[in-house]
C-alpha cells in the first residue's frame, strides 16, 4: 500500500513465537527480534556490539502457524514487513504508544546455519507468476533453451 513504511530486519528471536487465536478466530504469532549492530573499534582492534534494537513483531494466518512450527528462540532470521504505530491505555491509566512490525515475509538466515524447506499445502501459493515460480505444467510447455546456457531456461522448484 502507498504510504506504508516497509522495512527489513535481520536479528535473533528473543523467545519462541507465541501462537494464539483471536476472538474473531484469526491466528497470530507474536515474537521479538533483537538486531545488534557490530562495529570495529580501532583502538582495541576488536569487534564490539552496539546497542540492540528490540522490535516486537506479529505474523497472521498461515504465516503465524509456520512461524510457530519453524522458528525458535535464538534463531537468526530475516523479516520484512510494515511498521505500525499503535496507542493504548495501560492498566495504570497511562497512555502508551508502541511501534510494531506486521511481518509479511520471514525466514531463517543462512549466514551461520542451514535450513530444510518444506512446502505447506494449506493456504499455499497465491497469485500469478511472481518471483520466477512456475507451475510444473507451465514450465514444461515453454520451449527449451540451448543446453549450454543454464540461465536462459526457467528452473522448476523442488518441493
Question: What are the defining features of this structure?
Answer:
two-stranded antiparallel sheet; 42% strand; 2 helices; mainly beta; five-stranded mixed β-barrel; 159 residues
Walk me through this protein's architecture.
This protein has 159 residues and is mainly β. It contains 2 helices and 8 strands. The protein has helices at residues 61-70, 136-141, and strands at 5-13, 18-21, 27-35, 38-41, 46-49, 53-60, 76-89, 95-108. Strands 1-3-6-8-7 form a 5-stranded mixed barrel. β2 (18-21) and β3 (27-35) form a beta hairpin.
Topology of helices and strands:
Elements: E1 5-13, E2 18-21, E3 27-35, E4 38-41, E5 46-49, E6 53-60, H1 61-70, E7 76-89, E8 95-108, H2 136-141
Parallel strand pairs: 6-8
Antiparallel strand pairs: 1-3, 1-7, 2-3, 3-6, 4-5, 7-8
